[in-house]
Amino acid sequence: MENETIKIGNVEVKSRVMLAPMAGITDVVLRGLVRKFSKTCLLTTEMISSEALMQKKGGEILERCDDETPLAYQISGHKPFMMAKAAKMLEERANIIDINMGCPVNKVVKGGDGSALMKTPELASDIVKAVKDAVDLPVTVKFRLGYTAETKNFKEFALKMQEAGADAMTIHCRTRSQMYSGKADWSEISGIKEFIKVPVFANGDVIDVDSAIKCLEESKADGIAAARGVLGNPALLGEIENYLKTGEKPKNTGFKEKIRLMKTHLDEEIRLRGETCAIQFTRKFYPYYIRGIKGASQFRYALVTENSYEKILKIIDEIEAQCD
Prior knowledge:
Elements: E1 6-8, E2 11-13, E3 17-19, H1 28-37, E4 43-49, H2 50-54, E5 71-76, H3 80-90, E6 96-101, H4 106-109, H5 121-134, E7 139-144, H6 154-164, E8 168-172, E9 200-203, H7 209-219, E10 223-226, H8 236-246, H9 255-273, H10 275-282, H11 286-290, H12 296-305, H13 309-322
Parallel strand pairs: 3-10, 4-5, 5-6, 6-7, 7-8, 8-9, 9-10
Antiparallel strand pairs: 1-2
Helix pairs in contact: 3-5, 5-6, 9-10, 9-13
């Protein structure tokens, strides 16, 4: 049996897997679905802009449930004093504060946030120090291999984050210039535990149990962070945990079970956001739940263009009947 516990500061995570943050994706509803299958994994919120938080914006992003512990709130920004204030505002909700230094999206990077901070390691270090001083919580950092293939600086960057007080780090095994294209190179970080003493999670392309095993083997990281792999399969982290404990690979989740999860996802989003907003918000998830089903493209079009909850339920019933 694998050692299941990873200590992040004073927080014990009784799991080697983490739900990585995804903007507009890892809301309280998706996290709740993941928690149904994994009682111990580390969950992470969507990225929360420190500037938006200062303007009292946040809404549903800030929501959490009692059973989400351990839960990390991820914040983004490039001003140490503002990041410290944002962390302080979240201190009562969070178990861990995670700092985003890996988001590659243009609108984030051009403001100096996300992976742009890999170009300014001194500023990144100041941010970690400021947040550490502001809260009595573990502080973690998520970053990439580097800004470009020519400027890979993750080793030096990781060391600087550790020296600044980071209690753990997650490394997405791509550069910023790769965005989400190409393959994540897990082996790149295989030597990092020789000089980084805090827990390291490897991230990128963990989509099933087999890729999780390979990621752990190649990265030699303490744990793994899965992101897009949970879309359409909220059970993924639980499946990985079970394999690490027992060596048993999961049975394929049946289509009927996936369709039931899809309906639960929609209903919970309606409970959170109201019917009109939730129907639009949930459209992004449908393709993942129905992938591989006969006639998926037609069903997908019907689901993402329908505004009536009752009609959506009829489409879902039609899909489920086909899965018999």
